[in-house]
Amino acid sequence: MDFNMKKLASDAGVFFSRAVQFTEEKLGQAEKTELDAHFENLLAKADCTKNWTEKILHQTEVLLQPNPSVRVEEFLYEKLDRKVPSRVTNGELLAQYMVEAANDFGPGTPYGKTLFKVGETQKRLGGAERDFMHSASINFLNPLRNFLEGDWRTITKERRILENRRLDLDACKARLKKAKAAEAKASAVPDFQETRPRNYILSASASALWSDEVEKAEHELRVAQTEFDRQAELTRLLLEGISSTHVNHLRCLHEFVEAQATYYAQGYQYMLDLQKQLGSSKGETFPGTFVGNAESTSPPPATTSPTTVSATIPVVPTVGRAPNPATAVEGALNLSDVKPPASGTRKARVLYDYEAADSSELALLADEMITVYSLPGMDPDWLIGERGNQKGKVPVTYLELLS
């Protein structure tokens, strides 16, 4: 019990000494031991690494899981060391709804068949998103968290100890300075004509006491300097390890980019396959809409953007009366006799590869340039494309129309 009380009293004295030194430094009444420029640069680099790592970690978590409630729930599961329950992604949930709707509307109907195809693609997209989130969490988020919760906490602890050692060192320097000043004052030779012998004896005794105090302060200063140097070296080694942390985070960043590139490539391929399926089945879904009667009161189905774009495509003028609907499709399939307008055709750049579904369509290769124009009564989602001596229908969604 006595030992604990002595230790408590000693710790209280050290704390009070540090508080006094810290306060006097803030008020400009005490000197402060400055660290070398290299050490200060290491400290600045460490603080910068910590701040940006926190921001990147938080924003990546938002990217992978935009719902803040779900993020909080996952955080609690992680802190409680429990397995996070599996959740369906938004794409998978949309796929589930589409498939159920297709079954209700009838999988044999055009709308139900298309819903089923789109739902299957959304399911594949949801699976790709799940794989990306898992890979990003393991290969990117976890290393960032490990740095903040492991290495950075150790660095922070050792920096705090170093600051306490510095305060102890500066407090010892201040005590030694005061002791030397008092010793010099006490050892000054008194004036025997004006000073009584008793005061002289007291002055000599005080000088001896202050000499002992100076020796004690010098010993404490040497101990404090040794502890400060040892702690500074330990902290320096930890701070220099930040460079290794950057190398590790760089590797993790490359893995994150690879996972994200794979995810987007899968999504692009899935949507491209779906687009081809929908494009090839459009003739079955909307029969007679590629080339219809110009006087028909029921306009062909069209999306918003292709209609707007195709409105600027020049139309080949018809000769004579409107074609018979019975022979319109046959004429559309045989485009060898169709001549482009003398002026007003447009150039288009192909965005994606397209495989022709039949002989009336023109196969496309990405990034090639073709000439396009429209025919009267054509489905606004399609145009006539020419490439050299080849000619055929091409989907508008695969083109970038150039002015």
3D architecture notes:
65% of the residues lie in helices and 6% in strands. The chain is α+β, with helices and mostly antiparallel strands and 403 residues long. β2 and β3 (382-387) form a beta hairpin. The longest helix has 77 residues, at 110-186.
H/E order of the elements?
A: HHHHHHHHHHEEEEE
The major pleated sheet works out as: 5 strands, antiparallel
Distance between the termini: 92 Å
Helix count, per DSSP? 10
Helix-strand category: alpha+beta
Helix content: 55-70%
Shape summary? elongated
Q: Work out the number of β strands.
A: 5
Physical arrangement of strands within the biggest beta sheet: 4-3-2-1-5
Mean pLDDT: 79
The radius of gyration is 41 Å
* Unreliable residue runs: 286-313, 315-333
In terms of DSSP E residues, the strand content is 5-15%
Oligomer: single chain
Offer a quick outline of the entry.
With 403 residues, the chain is of the alpha+beta class.
Features of this protein?
alpha+beta; 5 strands; elongated; 403 residues
SSE diagram, text form:
Layout: H1 2-26, H2 37-64, H3 68-79, H4 90-105, H5 110-186, H6 197-240, H7 242-280, H8 282-285, H9 304-310, H10 325-333, E1 346-350, E2 369-373, E3 382-387, E4 390-395, E5 399-401
Antiparallel strand pairs: 1-2, 1-5, 2-3, 3-4
Helix pairs in contact: 1-5, 2-5, 4-5, 5-6, 5-7
